[in-house]
Design brief:
about 15% strand, alpha+beta, flat, 8 helices, 3 strands, about 230 residues, Thiol Ester Dehydrase, Chain A
Length: about 230
């Protein structure tokens, strides 16, 4: 996923530079569409390889899906496609994932716990992914060392807030396997909108800075460019 992101960002930078020299807007749009096409081709190639590899692994480990659910290959295909999607305007991932597994005597109980674990994992991934974006944007600002540390600390304490603030998630993988003792093990993967995740972390950081009485909270929107 990181490799694809690097390819995407290099193409995006090239397109932006070309736009500055383009004679008209149509030329810029044509270049942007070409970039999107290349990114999609790269993504589809990686998805195809990953799906084949993971589908075999899941089958070998005994995972199966409930009656009426999408085949595991289709679920995996959807999950990889979403993981490789980026916002063409700012390079942010369109979706952030969370995964969870749980074992119980009933399918429903195992699924409920797996979903709870996936939300905690999602919160951690949001914290990591978005923190990197925020810190990168702030690195371009003239922040003092103390201000940078204050933002970093605020991000670190944001996980619980994120868990509580996560809204609607998309379940892209849901499968299970039965153990010899008749217990059910359920595995899920959920996705959350990247822009909503960014806003959630930004709000958490802002509130934490306000709680500490840090004047930086008043400048955060400006510093982050919106």
């Amino acid at each position: 996923m990181r490799k694809l992101a690097i390819v995407f960002m290099s193409l995006l930078v090239f397109g932006a530079a070309s736009a500055q020299n383009a004679d008209d807007y149509k030329a810029f749009i044509k270049e942007r569409k070409a970039i999107q096409k290349l990114v999609k081709q790269e993504r589809d190639e990686k998805v195809s390889k990953e799906v084949k590899k993971m589908a075999k692994k899941y089958a070998k480990e005994g995972w199966k899906v409930s009656v009426g659910a999408l085949p595991i290959e289709k679920q995996l295909e959807k999950s990889f496609q979403m993981q490789y999607e980026f916002d063409i305007e700012n390079g942010m991932p369109k979706y952030i994932k969370g995964e969870g597994k749980a074992i119980s005597t009933s399918y429903d109980a195992a699924k409920m716990q797996a979903m709870a674990d996936a939300r905690v994992d999602l919160a951690g991934n949001i914290q990591t992914e978005v923190a990197a974006i925020i810190e990168e944007r702030l690195a371009n600002q003239e922040l003092g060392k103390n201000e940078a540390v204050a933002v970093s600390n605020a991000i670190q304490v944001s996980k619980q807030y994120i868990v509580q603030s996560i809204g609607r998630v998309i379940t892209v993988i849901e499968c299970y396997r039965e153990h010899k003792n008749k217990n059910y093990e359920v595995r899920v993967m959920i996705m959350y909108n990247g822009e909503m995740a960014y806003q959630t972390v930004k709000k958490s950081v802002k509130e934490e800075l306000e709680k500490r009485g840090d004047e930086l909270s008043k400048e955060l929107d400006k510093l982050l460019g919106f």
